[in-house]
Design brief:
3-stranded antiparallel beta sheet; transcription; globular; mainly alpha; 154 residues; HTH_MarR-typ; WH_DNA-bd_sf; MarR family winged helix-turn-helix transcriptional regulator; WH-like_DNA-bd_sf; 66% helix
Length: 154
């Protein structure tokens, strides 16, 4: 147990915080899956994240995507094969490196990426709905500081 900042503060239940973070994540994933199913979108989490990343970036190398998801090359190839077979992305030679391919969303992939982003935003809005604007900002500030601390850890 550790003590949060502030004189006389009660000890922090680290296990309780970790459990609650895991529960929030699980509920976000459950509700997102439910919304995807309701809209007939039969993609797994990794496929959804890849399309959202491609929508945001436009084009990436397979290596960049693999690093973003901590996938090995075989796992990334399988993921890309599935999305390509559904007409959601295409592989094209990288003009700057003939040994590499650029992964680009197709028009259908971009359209689906828009729908996926809207679903994710709606789920998050629902999760944040009980919080005031000030509480939302406070939560974001806390999460940013936590993320910074984790990224600085050896």
């Amino acid at each position: 147990m550790s003590t949060p900042r502030g004189a006389g503060a009660a000890p922090l239940d680290v296990g309780g915080v970790a459990a609650r973070v895991a529960q929030v994540h699980a509920e976000l994933m459950r509700l997102t899956r439910k919304r995807l199913d309701e809209q007939g979108i039969a993609l797994n989490h990794s496929q959804v994240q890849a399309l959202k990343r491609l929508r945001a970036n436009g084009s990436m190398s397979a290596g960049e995507l693999a690093r973003a998801f901590d996938y090995d090359s075989g796992g990334m190839t399988r993921l890309l094969d599935r999305l390509e077979s559904q007409g959601l992305l295409q592989r094209q030679p990288d003009p700057g490196d003939r040994r590499s391919l650029r992964i680009q969303p197709t028009a259908a992939g971009l359209a689906l990426g828009e729908r996926l982003a809207a679903i994710g935003e709606a789920v998050l809005a629902q999760a944040l709905s009980p919080l005031s604007a000030r509480e939302r900002q406070g939560l974001l500030d806390c999460l940013e500081r936590m993320l910074a601390a984790l990224r600085q850890a050896p």
